[in-house]
Amino acid sequence: MTQVIVLNGGSSSGKSGIVRCLQAVLPDPWLALGVDTFVDAMPLSLRTSSEGIEFAPDGAVGVGPEFRSL
């Protein structure tokens, strides 16, 4: 089973500090990745399709089945 913890917040809101604390107290190792790193690692075809991830002009984000399988 894949587990993901998503921290959402503005710049300098403490997300990185929370990640470091979680990594210190959780029993298993966890990776910390910024969403920009993850999106940049995706093939271009998945960055612009309903199968991958779509960014709407109003800021909404939609994810499709290929994104979910990653």
- Poorly predicted parts: none
Helix percent band: 25-40%
Q: Based on helices, strands and strand pairing, what is the structural class? A: mainly alpha
Span between termini: 13 Å
- Tally of alpha and pi helices: 4
Strand content: 5-15%
Number of domains: 1
Order of helices and strands: HHHEEH
Describe the structure.
With about 70 residues, this protein is mainly alpha-helical. It has one domain (about 15-70). The protein is built from four helices and two strands, in the order αααββα. It has helices spanning about 15-25, 35-40, 45, 65-70, and strands spanning about 55, 60-65. It has a two-stranded antiparallel sheet with strand order 1-2. The protein is globular and about 35 Å long.
Brief sketch in words of this structure:
With 70 residues, this protein is mainly alpha-helical.
What layout of secondary structure does this protein have?
Elements: H1 15-25, H2 35-41, H3 44-47, E1 53-55, E2 61-63, H4 65-69
Antiparallel strand pairs: 1-2
Sum up the structure in keywords.
70 residues, mainly alpha, 4 helices, globular
